[in-house]
Write a structure and sequence with these properties.
By secondary structure, the chain is of the alpha+beta class. It is built from three helices and four strands, in the order H-E-E-E-H-E-H. The chain has helices spanning 7-16, 48-64, 87-107; strands spanning 18-21, 25-31, 35-40, 72-78.
């Protein structure tokens, strides 16, 4: 799948990536020539049905806005309970976090 990040790449992102933490989610980014992303949600956040719904929505948001985001590897962590999921808020937070990361990355 085009959006998945394998375990070895996820380890690199966690260790070397740029990080932005917001209220509902956190985004880690590692510059690469490919655009890949993966949502991450803890089992404590809700049932498997609820977690999978949140992951589907995050994947869809990342896929639809691919042309707005820089190339690289993204890990999007959802930090709240799945019952508190709000698509509009998460969409805005993802946009803000990635714009912040892109701005910080181009400055350095």
């Amino acid at each position: 799948m085009h959006f998945s990040v394998n375990a070895s790449m996820a380890k690199k992102i966690r260790k070397n990536g740029f990080f932005k933490h917001d209220v509902s989610l956190s985004v880690k980014y590692l510059p690469e020539k490919d655009y890949r992303y993966t949502p991450v949600i803890s089992k404590r956040q809700g049932t498997s049905v609820a977690r999978n719904r949140v992951k589907r929505v995050i994947r869809e948001l990342m896929r639809c806005n691919e042309h707005l985001y820089p190339a690289g590897l993204f890990m999007v962590y959802f930090n709240r309970q799945c019952s508190q999921f709000n698509r509009k808020k998460v969409s805005l937070e993802i946009d803000e976090a990635i714009k912040y990361i892109a701005q910080q990355h181009t400055v350095k």
